[in-house]
Amino acid sequence: MPRILKLVFSVTLSAAILVTQFAYAAGTPAPKDAQVYFIWPQNGTVIHGGKFWVRMGLRNMGVAPKGVTLPNTGHHHLLIDTDLPPLDEPIPSDRNHLHFGAGETEARIELPPGKHTLQLLLGDQDHKPHDPPVYSKKITVIVR
C-alpha cells in the first residue's frame, strides 16, 4: 500500500474511532423539550405509614423497557436521598437508585420516618442518562 494511502487510512480509522467514542459518551439522544415529573407525591407531601405509591410522568418521550432500542424512549429511575449520579455513566442500582426497567410508571415504595428527597432520572436501554439528560426537580416528602 503506498505511503499516502496508509496515512489516509490511518487518519480515517482514527477519526472513526474518535467519533464512535464521542457518540457513546454523549448518550442516547433525547428531545430538548422532554420532561420527567412526579404525578404523585408532590413537593412537601406528608405521608403517613411509610408505604406509598410513586406515580411518574413523562412528556415528549415514550416509556420502553430496558434493552429496547427505540428513538425517544427510556425508562424511569427513582433517586432517593441522593444527588444525580454522573450523567455520562450508567445509573447505579442500589437502595438510593431504584430502576424501573420493565417500563413501570408507578411503584409502591416504603421509606422510614423522616424527611426524604426524591428525584426522577430517565435512562436509556442501557440505564444511561440521555443527552441532554432528562430529570425532574428534586422534591421533599415527610414520612410520619
From TrEMBL:
Domain of life where this protein originates: Bacteria
InterPro entries given in the database record: DUF4399
Domain DUF4399: 54-144
Keyword entries, A-Z: Signal
Signal peptide: 1-25
Pfam families in the record: DUF4399
Name of the protein in its database record: Uncharacterized protein DUF4399
Species this protein is from: Paucimonas lemoignei (Pseudomonas lemoignei)
